Amino acid sequence: MIDDIFAKRPKRHVQDLNIVPILDMFTTIIFFLLLSTGFLEYTKLTVPPSKVSTITDPVVPPPLAPKIILAKTKREELRLFMFWSGENPGEVSETFKPLDERERREAILRISDKFARDFSAKYPKEKSLQVGLGSKLPYQDLISVMDGVRDVMSDLVLISHHEADARAAGTEPDPELPTRASTNKKSTEQGTNG
User: Which of 48, 156, 177, 182 sits in a 20 to 30 Å window from 37, CA-based?
Assistant: First the structure.
């Protein structure tokens, strides 16, 4: 008993406070405040107004948006046609029926090159062309059309086969179907060789 009275009491253990995360937080806050006050001077900069340009021609002519499409007709012939909109919309087309694959490729190359060169001579500034292929034609025909126009037109854009099929049938494409860009102008020039 006596020993219990004079026995050493266990020391209270005071839990140490970990101040490292607190110091990290304060360092980050101080660093952020120092940097953000440096950026306040940039918010006071005044930028002079940009130069005002005057437009001499208020009416900008619509883009040409030339398209070349290869499609199969109802009589199982191939029809290659090129049309464009703009101030002077037009269309040229040629229908042919090749006997074999070699003749087919050569005819597509020859006709598409002729159409592209004639168009480029008429509109030398236009360098883009939208290319379409009917849904019932092989992909090799699209490659042949692209090979035929690539020397003249540097920027080729593919359009949907829905638009190509609609144009080949003589109707406008359905706006619900996915297409690239469609033209609502009717053709004014018609050229057929056959």
Answer: 48
Q: Would 23 be classed as within a structural domain?
A: no
Cβ partners under 8 Å of residue 115, min gap 6:
68, 80, 82, 92, 149
Q: Considering its fold, how many domains does the chain have in total?
A: 1
Give the H/E segment covering residue 131: strand 128-133
Identify the helix (H) or strand (E) that includes residue 161: helix 161-168
Residue with tokens 């099929």: 165
**What CATH code is carried by the domain that includes residue 103?**
3.30.420
Residue 100 lies in a domain: yes
> What tens digit of pLDDT does each residue of 27-84 get?
999 988 888 777 766 666 666 666 766 666 667 677 778 888 888 887 888 888 888 8
The reply to whether the predicted model has a pTM over 0.85 is: no
Mean pLDDT of the chain: 77
